[in-house]
Please model this.
Amino acid sequence: MSWTGKILRVNLTDGSITEEPLNMEWAQQYLGQRGLGTKYLVEEIDPKVDPLSPDNKLIFATGPLTGTGASTSARYSVITKSPLTGCVACSNSGGYFGPELKYAGYDMIIFEGKAPNPVYLLVEDDNVELVDASDLWGKSVWETDAAIKEKHQEPLLHIATIGHPGEYGALLSAVVNDGHRAAGRSGVGTVMGSKNLKAVAVHGTKGLKVKDPEAFVAAVNAGKKVLAENAVTGEALPTYGTNVLMNIINEIGALPTRNAREVQFEGANEISGEAMHRPRRSDGKPNLVTNQGCFGCTIACGRVSKIDPTHFSVKDKPQYHIASGGVEYENAWSLGADCGVDDLEALTYCNYRCNEHAMDPISVGATVAAAMELYEEGVIDKEETGGIELKFGSAEALCAAVDAMCEGTEFGKKLAMGSKRLCEHYGRPELSMTVKGQEFPAYDPRGIQGMGLTYATSNRGACHLRSYTVASEVLGIPEKTDPLTTDGKAALVKAFQDATAAVDSSGLCIFTTFAWTLEDIAPQIDAACEGEWTAERLLEVGERIWNMERKFNLDAGITPDQDTLPKRLLKDAAKTGPAKGLVNGLDKMLPEYYALRGWTPDGVPTEQTLQRFGLA
Model:
């Protein structure tokens, strides 16, 4: 129940499409989405495979609660081996695509091989076919979405697609569905492009069943009540979105600024969630038009914004005089504070462009920030940048750099490979703020110590959503811990990692955990799915997933010495704020973390640990 019990296997090389039963034994061990999709990946590919070769696979996976009507049951993941990091990649998105895939009758799609020419997959219930996409190659996400709906005369299609950067091999390419919801990180769109797969278009009408409808409705309603009554999920996120964090994180001295040279940004208030509400356009209206929720969501943290039509970024571009996806906290930080830019309209334009061309805005902004430091250090000049005066604080330079990536200019293609390769190319690798090749997000580990361990040990490279200790260290959820100490952070990170892996596998949004614990989630899964599901069992599933991902990365050649942070965070103390004088204490936390995980002092899961989770 709740699982459809079917997957689609699409061989792009020979064009064959087959249905097969979902492995229900694996579903009981890995639940769905992140866990189950990754299980299929690790069983079916060589960990050392070239991520951009036809031998890599690309998996679209839903969770058992996806599409059920539980609050936030919109999620699906895109899973592959990352070309950006060489690690396992699992990028999570919302919107409406995931539920639509379930309604068509499928838990998962596995793409293998490479199409000889560009194609897209059309799924309309049992009618599944590969369609020539030669006329769509080179088109944007928005153009592709409109063209496919027009061709099939079906406005109810939900489409996940890539833009031009994913076609030319940009390692920062995402998969965008429903126009502005993104499976954003780790270059999953790059793998899609390498397979000549332009899009996946889905419309389903079959609906879903759950194991115990009465118990399910009761559990879901109880969960919605908890979300509504919580200050974060019931008030802050609906009103201000995730960008409610901008001023909070800046005040505690943990906002990486100008490529993490600093930890506080003097312009934070101008790009905050509050700023989005203030009248600022030439017509006297605010940047924010409305909030928006994904399928089934009762939080509605999404932003819909409109750019001032007189702003330099869009003055002569009427196609951007529309209401579309506004900035969230992460992209407001990366495009804003990290680049020293406090122009909200410019950030909104760059965010539009990232959505339009399927680029990860976290890595895009952080890479531009690294390029700005290279420019200010005199390592690159205007001749190298194609005429862009790439100075910190320049909104014009930011917009030009993002445009260059979207359009694939000579310098734009260098940027679109990410900051690690960019900085290595110019002989300054220490200026790349990455872990395992992936740019770290909007929390400085000198001001929030647990996030340093989170970044260092994340199985997909630097990531906040694999272990959001900010909830505890800053917001006091589920209990307050001191962000400036390393004490107890190894246990905190492990607990967050295991719980998050379970939530990511369920089909629910991780933002629910601002209010919910696994005790709130387990009854919903138990009522929907076969088997007995408890909070304890979910934690065990999460720990199994974490060790499976770790084992894959080790087998792929990712060494434990890569569980580290950029030298800037370990050697250069914070200059201002509560964390003034501090560096990240990773060396204190990492040995304790390895021990808690049941790994050797070198960071390798022991045989006993692997056997405990059936991974030996």
